[in-house]
Amino acid sequence: MPELPEVESARAVVEAGALGREIADVDDEDTWVCRPHPPGEIRDALVGQVLTAAHRRGKAMWCDTSGAAVLGLHLGMSGRLVVTDAGGEPVEGGDRVRGLSATDPDRDPAWDRFTVRFTDGGVLRLFDKRRLGRVRLDPDLGRLGPDAGEVGVAEFRERMSRGTAPVKARLLDQGVVAGVGNLLADETLWQARLDPRRRVDSLDADQLTALHRALRRATRRAIRRGGVHTGELIGHRRPGDHCPRCGGAMERATVGGRTTWFCAVEQT
Q1: What per-residue confidence (pLDDT) applies to 102?
Q2: CA distance 245 to 110
Q3: Of residues 168, 174, 169, the one with CA closest to residue 144
Q4: Residue 250 shares a structural domain with residue 173
């Protein structure tokens, strides 16, 4: 599933290629992706407007317009955003495509779930084979915690130390910090040398500070390298593999309903 770094790549594509272009038409006919809006409602709000800014908090992304509308875009499990210039040259960002290009001219056009057409001939479209993305006007961001890549250390410590949940489950709670998914959580906890099953009330201030530092480092590195799949631990999350740092056996568990991998030696 796209995590914070993948969504940031999609936001950057929109910021670099779609802002300042007048909207000529919108295809919002997919009633599942565009729910609860009926066909035409998003189109009516956007046609004639200009996208003026692209924002992100955690995995949520939204665009301001020159009118009253705010366009919310969510990549779902495997969505990508593609922007083309007036000549049709594409650039894309979001979840990395596995064996299928979002810019392949032979792709099934039904997988383009939402399309904005600009007056200059270019487009912005949501490519989502699994149809789990979401587009809506004026998205509600009130339940999201602060962005995982931006939250300060004092606020992070206070939010993470509440209650008795396992530390990985707390990292995955989007109301605590927004943007951490399963892979980024495993990478962060490995960097911090913390067992994902540790209760948050057992972590002292120094450990929480180290966890915050590891999260910022892992997030920024993943953004720079192109996604969470580039983490140092990620390729070793499999049976029989070993920790890339100490060579200890990798161990599997379930935390917060998610499959979790960690070093049986170093993560305590």
Answers
A1: 57
A2: 44
A3: 174
A4: yes
The number of helices, as runs of H, and strands, as runs of E, in the chain is: 6, 11
Q: Any idea what the CATH number is for the domain that residue 118 is in?
A: 3.20.190.10
In a domain, 168, yes or no: yes
Domain that holds residue 179: 153-263
Question: In angstroms, rounded to a whole number, what is the distance separating the alpha carbons of residues 261 and 42?
Answer: 42
- Which of the listed residues 113, 137, 161 is the one where a domain comes to its end? 137
Residues 6+ apart with CB under 8 A from 140: none
Q: Any alpha helices (H) in the chain, and if so which ranges?
A: 4-17, 41-46, 153-160, 167-172, 182-192, 205-225
pLDDT band at 106 (very low <50, low <70, confident <90, very high): low
What are the residue numbers of the active site?
2-3, 59, 258
96 has pLDDT over 80: no
Helix (H, G, I), strand (E, B) or coil at 154: helix
Measured distance CA(10)–CA(22) in Å, rounded: 20
Give the whole-angstrom CA distance, residue 237 versus residue 242: 9
Global pTM reads 0.90
Predicted pLDDT of residue 99: 47
